[in-house]
C-alpha cells in the first residue's frame, strides 16, 4: 500500500460508523459457529475477541504474557488491550459495514470501557445472547478439545470460565435488556434452528 492509498483508507475510516453486534454466551454455547454462519448468510464480518487475543500471542505482541496468563487461568484480559485489537480489526476491514463481535464484553468493566472508547465511532445495534445449558456446553467443549489445540479447552479452566461467565455477564445482559437492545436465543437447539431463529430476530430488528 502506497502513501496515497493509506491516506485514502484513513480518510474513509474516519467517515465510517460501522454497525456492531455483540454475540454473548457461555463457553461452548456456539457463538463462533453461529457467527461464521451469519457471516456467510449476511456478509457480516465475524471478529472473535478470543481469536484476536490468541493471534496477539502468536505474533509476539507486547501484551503477550498478560494475555497468555489471563487465558490460561480463565481470567479476563485488560479492557484496553482487547478494545485496541477490536478497534484495529474493525477499521482496517472495509469489506463490510457490519461486524459481529464474538465473546466480548466479558464483564461490566469491559462494557463501560467499550462505551467510553468506541460509542462515538460505531453504531451499536444489539446483543445476541445465546442461552445454553451447562450440560450442553460441557459436552461441546469436551468434543472440541479433541481437535482445537486450545490451551483453555480443559475441564479445570472451563469451570473457572463458567463461574466468571455467570458472575460477570449478568449485568451486561441486564444493561442491554433495559435498553431494548437484547436478542435471546435458545442455544441448546441444533445449529440450524439457532441460526434460523437469529436470522428471524435480526430481520425483525432491522425492519422496525
From TrEMBL:
GO terms for biological process: 'de novo' pyrimidine nucleobase biosynthetic process; nucleoside monophosphate metabolic process; pyrimidine nucleotide biosynthetic process. Pfam families: ADK. It comes from Paramecium primaurelia. SUPFAM superfamilies: P-loop containing nucleoside triphosphate hydrolases (SSF52540). It catalyses: UMP + ATP = UDP + ADP. This is NMP kinase. GO terms for molecular function: ATP binding; nucleobase-containing compound kinase activity; phosphotransferase activity, phosphate group as acceptor. The keyword Protease does not apply. Keywords: ATP-binding, Cytoplasm, Kinase, Nucleotide-binding, Nucleus, Pyrimidine biosynthesis, Transferase. NCBIfam families: UMP_CMP_kin_fam. InterPro entries: Adenylat/UMP-CMP_kin, Adenylat_kinase_CS, P-loop_NTPase, UMP_CMP_kinase. CDD domains: ADK (cd01428). Coiled coil: none annotated. Gene3D superfamilies: P-loop containing nucleotide triphosphate hydrolases (3.40.50.300). Belongs to the adenylate kinase family. The keyword ATP-binding applies.
Amino acid at each position: 500500500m502506497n502513501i496515497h492509498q493509506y491516506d485514502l483508507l484513513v480518510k474513509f475510516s474516519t467517515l465510517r460508523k460501522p454497525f456492531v453486534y455483540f454475540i454473548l454466551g457461555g463457553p461452548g454455547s456456539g457463538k463462533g459457529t453461529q457467527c461464521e454462519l451469519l457471516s456467510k448468510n449476511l456478509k457480516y464480518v465475524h471478529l472473535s475477541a478470543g481469536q484476536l487475543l490468541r493471534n496477539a500471542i502468536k505474533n509476539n505482541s507486547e501484551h503477550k504474557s498478560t494475555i497468555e496468563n489471563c487465558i490460561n487461568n480463565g481470567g479476563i484480559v485488560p479492557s484496553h488491550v482487547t478494545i485496541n485489537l477490536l478497534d484495529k480489526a474493525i477499521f482496517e476491514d472495509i469489506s463490510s459495514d457490519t461486524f459481529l463481535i464474538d465473546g466480548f464484553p466479558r464483564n461490566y468493566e469491559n462494557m463501560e470501557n467499550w462505551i467510553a472508547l468506541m460509542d462515538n465511532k460505531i453504531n451499536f445495534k444489539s446483543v445476541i445472547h445465546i442461552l445454553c445449558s451447562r450440560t450442553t456446553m460441557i459436552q461441546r467443549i469436551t468434543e472440541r478439545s479433541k481437535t482445537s489445540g486450545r490451551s483453555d479447552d480443559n475441564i479445570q479452566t472451563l469451570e473457572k470460565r463458567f463461574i466468571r461467565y455467570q458472575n460477570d455477564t449478568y449485568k451486561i445482559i441486564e444493561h442491554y435488556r433495559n435498553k431494548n437492545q437484547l436478542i435471546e436465543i435458545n442455544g441448546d437447539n441444533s445449529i440450524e434452528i439457532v441460526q434460523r431463529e437469529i436470522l428471524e430476530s435480526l430481520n425483525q430488528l432491522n425492519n422496525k
